[in-house]
Amino acid sequence: MDLASFQDRIKHAHRKWFGFAAETVTVYPAPRLDSFRFDVPYTHRFELTKQQLLNSHGTYVSVDRTWWVWQQEIDEIDTDDFPAATAFEFKIGDVIKDAEGVSWTILNVEYDDKSRNYHLTVRDLVIVAGLADSITIMRADIVKGEASETFYDYDNGTPIVTNLACLVQPIQQQGEDRLSVMSTAKKFTVVLAQPVDLILVQDQIRATLQDGTELQLKWTSYRNTMRIDELPVLECERI
After folding, report:
1. Which of 95, 136, 194, 203 could pair covalently with 28 via S-S, beta carbons 3.0-4.6 A apart?
2. CB 219: neighbour CB atoms within 10 A?
């Protein structure tokens, strides 16, 4: 083995530490933008131990995970292609997206100086929030009529997001049942799996509930929460 090969083997020794397959993930620095991201190979995830759950005093739950990411892998990313990786350091609120498309929000960051390894505690907010519904946000194709009147063509419009996991909740009176009020409710809150780009007032929301019921909604306000353990919310009205 020549010197270069030996040095490369030492530099990537962490790739040999475990007897199970490593994962390549996509990292989205907070605040999340789909265009500002980079991939990291050779990462590992672990279930939290019972002791870790006990020591957290309720801060963490059983569906949370610990993710190990080595600084060496980040250092080798081509920052010309992925400028988001330039001088990158993980922080609370960043998101890791796995190969199955599941997004994990970072709740805690620890760094081992000796091994140059990040230990990240992460949570799938979609599971914890019980997001069993989905929405598609459509941006209309604006058409001018013969008299120069404006028409909004949603059937031939552009989807802003498609089948995004969410939870549609009717704004109801205390004591009312969600299912019984869903058919008559006029106003709703929609908890989103992730932030969405700024949408226009005329954008249309097509919601599909867990039972297959479909709703046509328009949004009235958007709250992109500042807490990393909560999800953004749309307030909507039925069309």
Report:
1. 95
2. 19
Q: Look at residues 2, 212, 232 and name the one whose alpha carbon lies nearest to residue 125.
A: 232
Cis amide bond preceding 170, omega within 30:
no
145 near 163, Cβ under 8 Å? no
The 3-state DSSP class for residue 178 equals helix
Instruction: Give all domains of the chain, ordered by start, each with its CATH number.
Output: 3-123 (2.40.10.270), 129-238 (2.40.10.270)
Amino acid at 231: L
List, for residues 75-126, the tens digit of each pLDDT value: 988 888 888 888 899 998 899 999 888 889 999 999 999 888 999 999 998 8
148: left (phi over 0), alpha (psi -120 to 50) or beta: left
Q: CA of 222: how far to CAs of 52, 201, 225, 233, 239, in Å?
A: 36, 11, 9, 6, 17
Which residue reads 């039972």 in tokens?
211
pLDDT of residue 106: 93
In one-letter notation, the amino acid at residue 133 is D
Contact 48, 64 (CB under 8 A): yes
Give CA–CA dist 12/76, Å, rounded: 11
DSSP characters for 57-114? TTSS-TT-EEEEEEHHHHHTS-TTT-GGGTT----TT-EEE-TTS-EEEEEEEEEETT
Q: Which residues does the chain have with pLDDT short of 70?
A: 1-21, 172-183, 198-199, 225-227
Quick one: CA dihedral 90, 5, 24, 124, positive or negative?
negative
